[in-house]
Write a structure and sequence with these properties.
Layout: H1 38-46, H2 51-64, E1 68-69, E2 82-87, E3 90-95, E4 106-111, E5 116-127, E6 130-138, E7 151-160, E8 168-173, H3 193-196, E9 209-212, H4 219-228, E10 236-245, E11 250-252, E12 258-261, H5 264-279, E13 287-292, H6 309-320, H7 325-334, E14 336-340, E15 343-344, E16 367-370, H8 380-393, E17 398-401, H9 413-420, E18 423-428, E19 430-432, E20 439-442, H10 443-458
Parallel strand pairs: 1-2, 4-13, 4-14, 14-18, 15-19, 16-17
Antiparallel strand pairs: 2-3, 3-13, 5-6, 6-9, 7-8, 7-10, 11-12, 12-20, 16-18, 19-20
Length: about 450
């Protein structure tokens, strides 16, 4: 092994309450809800409160399975057969190498970011005897779900470091206890709220409170310095911080067949992609996974799906393995990309919001997404290939088409299809409460996901 290829040591995973061995009153596992992967997904979500944590946690999983980490600027000459690279909140990993002979490759892409509240650069504010933090809404958050929740902070903090060549060091932070809360206005002061609906102005109504007293310039900076054990608040030079729900993922329902958690969109599919890659045989065709940041805001960033980084890593792997750009382009023309993002389950209280012939059930297996206007990238041939993968793994599948009089969302799928000229299929696991602070899916679909994704890479 090349001595430059050093593996990281994975952190120990925190405990969680999504017990995969939940039993009925007779002590036997509940039929159909064994949830082999439920506890592991719960651990991954707990360790991934932000995109930067998610990329790091994904690297830890891969390192524990024998994958070798390469640095972002490291030489890719003779790369390891099983490896990965992390850049900010994104990750690219592979099992088997895209060969110089232009071997067709199967890939899975997901995203690490979720909608929510981000802390502003000058956050310290307050009013009426309460200290607050100024926030900005990130992505298409269901903002009412952030009210009256116990929240904390998580993200990365950049500090001065005289021992670093750059003079800077970046630390991941995630204090576990509740710090913040966005209190809702009492019904006595908003008498029409239950008849006219809740109306929230993202500039005025979403600032969380986090203490008593008047606003103090440098309040957050002082807190971060204490959290990191720094000599002074002036050592804190920058941050990328999110408000994060403190409630742990958990199973619920009469028989424990449902799973509620923050950030299912899209940490669920990120976990499934990593599990499938770790199970992929080296003897088969090469397999790759990319977990991109910034999908929820359009993917246009240095590490988003609309950026150049994934294509650069692919080219470096091919060239490092003895190929050239021509080999890469020939490989892409024969390769297939599975864009894995969560899907809309049919809501029992709002069935009229769904296309009548394309209802999707929780627990019914992965969803193949179709859209004639290319909001999803699936075509007939690509969809058929994923159906075969489901059949080979004994997993049911469903098909989704969006109601015609409601604007349709999108994924990284069309962006990747256009940027790499690669056949792309959009799929996802069905869920409710998409873009809420806490989302809901079926336990059975976690196993359906891992089974179908593994079959896809092995096929």
């Amino acid at each position: 092994m090349d001595p430059r290829h050093q593996a990281r040591t994975p952190d120990s995973a925190p405990s969680n309450r999504a017990d995969s061995d939940r039993a009925d009153s007779d002590g036997a596992a509940v039929a159909g809800t064994a949830g082999v992967h439920c506890a592991a997904l719960s651990d991954f979500i707990e360790r991934s409160p932000t995109p930067w944590h998610a990329a790091s946690a994904g690297g830890d999983l891969l390192a524990g399975a024998g994958f070798i980490e390469l640095g972002v600027s490291q030489d890719f000459d003779s790369p390891p057969e099983k490896g990965f690279v992390v850049r900010d909140g994104s990750l690219v990993a592979w099992s088997g190498l895209p060969a110089a002979a232009a071997t067709a490759t199967r890939m899975i892409g997901a995203h690490t970011d979720s909608p929510g509240l981000r802390i502003r650069p000058r956050p310290d504010t307050g009013r009426a005897g309460l200290r607050q933090l100024a926030v900005e809404v990130y992505g298409g958050a269901l903002i009412n779900s952030w009210l009256d929740r116990d929240l904390t902070l998580a993200g990365r903090v950049t500090v001065s470091d005289g021992d670093s060549p750059s003079g800077l060091r970046t630390e991941l932070v995630h204090p576990r206890g509740p710090l913040l809360r966005v209190p809702q206005l009492a019904v006595h002061l908003d008498r029409d709220v239950n008849t006219e609906g809740l109306k929230l102005n993202p500039q005025q109504h979403l600032k969380p409170v986090w203490g008593l007293g008047s606003d103090s310039e440098g309040d957050l900076r002082e807190f971060l310095a204490e959290l990191l054990g720094l000599p002074s608040p002036e050592s804190v030079l920058g941050w990328d911080l999110c408000a994060v729900d403190t409630q742990a993922p958990d199973r619920l329902g009469r028989d424990g067949e449902l799973f509620a958690a923050p950030r299912l969109d899209d940490l669920c599919c990120s976990y499934g992609a990593l599990e499938a890659l770790m199970a992929a045989p080296l003897s088969g065709r090469p397999s790759l996974v990319v977990l991109n940041d910034h999908e929820e805001v359009g993917s246009s960033s240095s590490t988003g799906a609309d950026g150049a980084w994934f294509a650069q890593v692919l080219e470096r792997l091919v060239v490092g393995s003895g190929g050239d750009r021509s080999a890469l382009l020939r490989s892409l023309s024969e390769s297939e990309f599975l864009s894995a993002d969560m899907a809309h389950g049919t809501h029992p209280n709002y069935p009229e919001r769904h296309e009548p012939n394309h209802w999707v059930t929780l627990g019914g297996g992965p969803v193949i997404k179709h859209n004639a206007n290319q909001r999803y990238a699936t075509d007939g041939e690509g969809g058929a290939a994923f159906k075969l993968a489901c059949a080979n793994s004994g997993v049911p599948f469903q098909e989704y088409s969006h109601r015609g009089d409601i604007p349709c969302g999108s994924t990284i799928g069309p962006v990747v299809a256009a940027g790499l000229a690669i056949r792309t299929i959009d799929v996802g696991m069905p869920q409710l409460s998409m873009h809420s602070v806490r989302e809901l899916m079926a336990v059975a679909d976690i196993d359906h996901m891992v089974g179908s994704f593994s079959s896809w890479l092995a096929g």
